């Protein structure tokens, strides 16, 4: 991924913002963070945005703010970045994996019901690659069961489900501003968004060592404060997010058109309910050795990435749970993500397509 075209565009504004912070002498949880929280909440249309120091912490702190801990089960996807399930384990609860939907790579909502037990407290759908999980049936399913819904929106800020902003449909949304994300800081940063006053209030306490009043810790918390410099950078970039996402959609449209009819490749499907923000443009390589295609692309100067080569139920930390999740296993064998970012030139896009067609020939 090449972040430089975007950075060049905003360099002056970002340096001004950083200078403002340097001169203020306030570096952690100050006016920039407060302003960013207000602006991000307004962007999403939620009551509360809580700045944290990573997306992983946003998941952990959201679960803690929901009161989830040892003895509890949390249903989630096996096909995601490890942080999703790691957060569940970190609060002492147990992740319960259900298989994914082959088209969207997201949780197969029709399998959730069978996985619910009397210990289930929460479901974490992951809006993977920028495409919404099927939130309508999911919310209907949890409604009468008293389960929390925590949306892992790390890859999908700006995406929508039936017109509604991702990360605002459940009880809370967790966001990552890791530099390569659609809204990226210049270091680690994250956020929790919620309409629930109680969750927001508890998250604000948990991020500062569980102390409502300084030095009077009431619960075991974390140091998960957002830096002023990161917040100032995010404030410069947030107003450009929708434009960047639109550019990602254009790149995706070009790839999808150019690859139509290539039998060894299955381009991403977009559900009618989803506004995709293409954090990744992820294809499947069918009937061929995906890893060979990746290395052939590499030889031609195209860096394709595999998100994710090992589904979570096959990781050393979770394989002992004994899951068999064939749809996720197949996805892990077949997927390949092509270069995509705002400002990616048409010339490079054409080279990517030509190299890919050559690589699967
Ligand atoms: C789906 C998903 N969840 C959680 C995270 C964790 O975010 P962070 O890297 O900011 O901790 C990431 C990103 O890395 C992610 O892609």
Protein topology:
Blueprint: H1 4-24, H2 31-44, E1 48-52, H3 55-65, E2 73-76, H4 83-90, E3 94-97, H5 112-115, E4 120-124, H6 135-143, E5 148-152, E6 160-161, E7 164-165, E8 172-176, E9 190-194, H7 197-206, E10 211-213, E11 216-217, H8 228-237, H9 241-259, E12 265-266, E13 274-275, E14 281-285, H10 290-299, H11 326-334, E15 335-338, H12 346-359
Parallel strand pairs: 2-3, 2-4, 4-5, 5-8
Antiparallel strand pairs: 1-9, 6-7, 6-13, 8-9, 10-11, 12-14, 14-15
Residues 54-56, 80-81, 83-84, 126, 152, 154-155, 176, 178, 188, 190 line the site of pyridoxal-5'-phosphate.
Q: Could you say which small molecules are bound to this protein?
A: pyridoxal-5'-phosphate
What is the CATH superfamily classification of the largest domain?
Answer: Type I PLP-dependent aspartate aminotransferase-like (Major domain)
Q: Which consecutive residue ranges, at least 5 long each, have pLDDT under 50? A: none
| N-end to C-end Cα span | 25 Å
Largest sheet: 7 strands, mixed
Secondary-structure element pattern, one letter each: HHEHEHEHEHEEEEEHEEHHEEEHHEH
Look up the CATH topology of the largest domain.
Answer: Aspartate Aminotransferase, domain 2
In percent, how helical is the residue content? 25-40%
Q: Biggest sheet: strands side by side, in what order?
A: 1-9-8-5-4-2-3
């Amino acid at each position: 991924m090449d972040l430089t075209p975007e950075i060049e565009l905003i360099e002056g504004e970002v340096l001004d913002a950083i200078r403002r912070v340097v001169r203020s002498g306030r570096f952690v949880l100050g006016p920039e963070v407060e302003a960013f929280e207000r602006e991000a909440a307004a962007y999403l249309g939620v009551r509360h945005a809580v700045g944290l120091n990573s997306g992983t912490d946003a998941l952990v702190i959201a679960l803690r703010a929901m009161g989830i801990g040892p003895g509890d089960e949390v249903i989630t996807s096996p096909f995601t970045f490890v942080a999703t399930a790691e957060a569940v384990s970190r609060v002492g609860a147990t992740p319960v994996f259900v298989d994914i939907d082959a088209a969207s790579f997201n949780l197969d909502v029709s399998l959730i019901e069978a996985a619910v037990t009397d210990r289930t407290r929460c479901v974490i759908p992951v809006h993977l690659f920028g495409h919404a999980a099927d939130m309508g049936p999911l919310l209907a399913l949890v409604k009468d069961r008293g389960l929390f819904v925590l949306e892992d929106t790390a890859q999908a800020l700006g995406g929508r489900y039936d017109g509604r902003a991702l990360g605002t449909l459940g009880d809370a949304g967790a966001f990552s501003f890791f530099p390569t994300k659609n809204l990226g800081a210049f270091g680690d940063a994250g956020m929790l968004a919620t309409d629930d006053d109680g969750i927001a209030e508890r998250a604000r306490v948990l991020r500062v060592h569980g102390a409502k009043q300084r030095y009077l810790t009431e619960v075991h918390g974390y140091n998960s404060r957002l830096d002023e410099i990161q917040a100032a950078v995010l404030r410069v970039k947030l107003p450009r997010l929708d434009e960047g996402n639109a550019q990602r959609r254009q790149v995706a449209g070009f790839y999808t058109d150019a690859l139509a009819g290539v039998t060894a490749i299955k381009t991403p499907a977009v559900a009618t309910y989803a506004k995709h923000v293409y954090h990744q443009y992820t294809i499947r390589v069918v009937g061929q050795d995906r890893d060979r295609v990746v290395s052939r692309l590499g030889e031609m100067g195209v860096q394709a990435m595999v998100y994710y080569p090992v589904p979570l139920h096959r990781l050393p930390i979770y394989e002992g749970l004994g899951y068999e999740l064939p749809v996720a296993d197949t996805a892990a064998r077949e997927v390949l993500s092509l270069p995509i970012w705002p400002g990616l030139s048409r010339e490079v896009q054409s080279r990517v397509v030509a190299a890919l067609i050559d690589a699967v020939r």
